Amino acid sequence: MKPELLLVAPLVIAFATGIATFLARRRPRLAGALSVGGAALLLAAALALLAQVVAAGPIATQAANWPAPFGITFVADLLSAIMVATTGVMALVIAVYALAEIPRPLESAGFHTFYQILIGGVCGAFLTGDLFNLYVWFEVNLMASFALLVLGGSREQLDGGIKYVAINLVATAMFLVAVAVLYGLTGTLNMADLHQSVGRVGDVGLLTVVACLFLLGFGIKSAVFPLFFWLPASYHTPPVTVSALFAALLTKVGVYALIRVFTLIFTRDVAFTHTVLLVVAGLTMVTGVLGAVAQMQVRRLLAFHIISQIGYMIMGLALMTPLALAGAIYFMLHNILAKANLFLISGVMRRTAGSFDLGEIGGLWKANPALALLFAVAAFSLAGMPPLSGFWGKLLLIKAGLDAESYAIAAVALTVGLLTLYSMVKIWNEGFWKPHPAGDGGVVTLAAALPGGRVWLLMAPIVVLAGLTVAMGLFAGPVVRVMLTAADQLLNSDAYVAAVFGSGR
Amino acid sequence: MASKTAPIGRAGPNSRFAIFRCVAGYLLAAALPAALTGLFVSLVPEVAGGGVLRWSVDWVPSLGVRLSFLVDGLGLVFALLISGIGVVVFVYARAYLDGHPQLVRFFVVLTLFMLAMLGTVLADNLIALFVFWELTTLTSYLLIGFTHERADARAAALQALLVTGIGGLAMLAGFILLGAAAGTFELSQLRAGTVDVRADPRYLPLLGLILVGCFTKSAQFPFHFWLPNAMAAPTPVSAYLHSATMVKAGIYLMARLLPTLGGTEAWTVTLTAAGAVTAVLGSVWALGQSDLKQLLAYTTVMGLGTLTLLLGLGGTAGVVAAMVFLLVHCFYKAALFLVVGAIDHATHTRERDALSGLAAAMPVTFVTAALAALSMAGLPPLVGFIAKELIYVGAVEAPVVPAVVVGAALAANALTVTAAGLVALGPFLGVRRAWSQPPHDPPWTMWSGPLLLAALGVGAGLYPALIDQTLVAPAASAVLNTPVEVHLALWHGLGLPLALSGATLALGLAAWSARRPLDRALAAAAAGLPRSAEGVYDAALAGMKGLAAWQTAVLQHGRLRGYLATVFATMIALIGLAFLWGGLSPAVPLPLDVPLYAWGAAALILAGTAVTLKTTSRLTAICALGAVGIGVAILFVSHGAVDVALTQLLCDILFVILLAVALLKLPRFRELPHRGRAAMVATAGLAVAFGTLVSLILLEILATPLDLRLTEFFQSHSQPTAHGRNIVNVILVDFRAFDTLGEIAVVMLAGLAAVALIRVRASARRHQENNR
User: What is the pTM of this model?
Assistant: First the structure.
């Protein structure tokens, strides 16, 4: 197989699986199996792509063979390949979890189809080399995620769904305006071409204004302060499977897009754009974590944490050094694994202890030590406890901040780390240590909560993700090296541009 | 506070199997610390001879992080204390918690703690050290909260985690700065001193940050308050973590960094002051405690203060004194904690007022307590006496205000004499009480270890050679980074230190004889004193929670209109800021020379918008929106985009029809709550501002020349290569077919979602009706 085919393989696999699951929707078991199988295939393709890019640098292909910048380019540098591989992992483990969690009516209403198309849309966003095409994948993601959000049809879900879709529509509209304006300014949509064209724009001030339009559109998608309202309004309402999938991937597409355009295209007035990003990063960290501290409902608490940790990723982008960008990518990968896992665990907590509300649960440490251990791995990793993955992400970013003499952001990042620890320990103290309000009988064991082998459909994904979190911490050396290479590719776009245009240009 | 942590009595079937399991349990629990102790003891000769052992492997080379370990005199002393006292504590804890349902978990965490602690004192890389340091914090959290069903234990565990966590984070920043200043994270390279960090402009901040880490971990004033609260842990944990080992980690680090960071005025003044204040306050607070464990906790604070003070002095005398006192303190303090555990075990109380006359019933415990207390009080011939003499030698030589330092040491030591009496004599002498269950000595597994530790105090006092050349000298040499000869002896000759020792004893005994009135005075004084930073901690925690609740209520208020207003306001602010930053002039030339029909279209659009906004009928509003669409379509036509105009018109018509159908299901407009005038004006302001800004951007863009590369390519390739005359169609299905695929997917998804939603809701309704 030509390596270039790996660039479209994730899309094709996801869309084909989506269609297959739609055809099989009357037979939920089959549809579920197809979904898991498709996700496994996608993961295999994504890992092959990652291996290819690690070995040979960025690769690109042109849709329908129209040469860049006239057609649509698909391109993967290391950042894209890492994101697609991570998407593959999450698609697979969450698809397994879904088998045990998603009720039959939702499955026959097309749950697996929406799930697969969302995965495909996310991969498309990571792999496209064309700004307007990126907009299209944003729309696909928005529609598929909206469907997943409100599929249950409860009042709470619809209320959250409306807020979600209304604010996100503003984001896509903003993005569209931004694309149009940038096209007006440069006459191109191809990102590698834009990298070169923006250098020819005479009016840097106007370019900076356009950069702000992108910052706003992607900022809403990434849920930064003060544009994040849609996220805490909606993430706690759908099935846990959907919360976990969203937590893993949705905001990260926004962060990816920010990293892409603010390293490849908008680097001519870093003093303005990246200072704005730095301020946004700090405020996002602080407001997000304070929001989390105020919550008593596990999923709401976790949802606010997503926001806070987006701030760390933006911080890495704003500092714009190799170490900082490597930190941002490492942090993103770590966060996807740990945060989605916490959502998955929250689902098991509810099944065994009876509620998402920390005031109504307890006793899980006594009753389910294995679950407690898995939670501890994910939660303490999120809080940056060494030697788990979160520690290295934090270390990279704080070192980058101190090296760049951005002491304020380093101090904010450290303080927010402490508050993150506090809120994770809050879940531990209330959910695991505190006796259950209803006594020991209030908690059931995992096996009793889900009879039959189904408990493993819930637990296997959690175990896998916890294992990856531990591995990412223990083997931080090679992982950080890959991240530094990815950062280097972002800061020196030559290889990316050469891949898109062929080495002849 | 009556103890609720009373150990669970030894129970279980008296079968051979149970006995085997019991013995096996002890072996299993103590095997690892015992093996490690053996290992470290075997290293003593080599290290005492000046040898250094290293082992290292790369971890994150790109960050300069190595998993490197180094055993020198200082590391070995700590390693021996950690593993050796580990043996005693592990065996003791196995008996103390016998039959506890979470015994296995307890030992897993305790073992993890021991390994993390060993890693902390043997790591040669600052980041590796930090990793182990944080792991001790985490395991300490789990152990303090071992009795997790009690709210106070959970709160104490959280407090210890947060206070030491703050320190840990500050320390991490300090380490990163230190690494940047020195160009390495390797401690051995830092000591080699190729770069003088003290001359770096970052020296003061990094010193401050690292010391915050040390002070929180080692319970220095004003961060000390977490330590007495950590006594919620089972007593073996208190003896091990919160007296002998973990709280010494800060001391270890200060000793370790002394050659690199020490010797400056900032170092000396900070450490001396913090240590002196901590030592004096710790000993004063200790006397005010009614719970024996709390009393011991505060004397630990005193001991940690003394160690910090000695390291602050920095000279040979201070460092030697620190190393001797470190050993001495571990011997007697661990023994005393375990004694208190035995008393608790036997009588189910640790209250001083409730305890007296136990000597006859618990003779072994009494002997242990007495030996340990004599060392604590610093009486000859125990090693505690030697330590105290050395402390005074160091204090007299203090580089800053020696009189104050000596005074502080004298006060702290004198009160420690009194405290030793309160612990070791109070419960055992005096009237015998009537107990419901007669108290007795604990099983040998619980008395042998403490007795051994107490006996070490006697042994090292009578034969100082046991420790001076083997442990103290190598450790002091490592701290000072230069070989030091140490010869300890009970008799130091006449001099100021001996006189001070005498004064200490006299003052201590005076305080002991006056302990009843003193108790009351101290209790009164303690009530008057602010409970130091604990009040700050509580206020900060409450303030943080309050801020969080307030902020969340303000930001995430649940009203979509407000969210959208904030989003648009943000957009306006940022775009406006960028305009100002870029120095863009708002006076762009308006292209007013447009044909008349374009004016007409614009008028139609404006009129449609105005009607939409003002009408109270939904139908009118929709029709007016349709007019807006027609106006836009006219503009498309005027630019030659007939197919786009057609699409626009079709969409508009479809939209109006569909909405009109949907209208039948919606409540009437007037029935919706009306908004206030101010809100309407604000929204209008946002709309106008946003519209103006977007228009300005568009006008600016129009004023720049358009690059037509793509258009030209499409024109020239549409027919010859793609075989289509209509360029728009070719773009849609060929040049940019992937976009079209995505858009089709969006439409399909929307349709599927709508169908699914209707079906799921319908089935839910059916389900409800069936249940009814």
Answer: 0.93
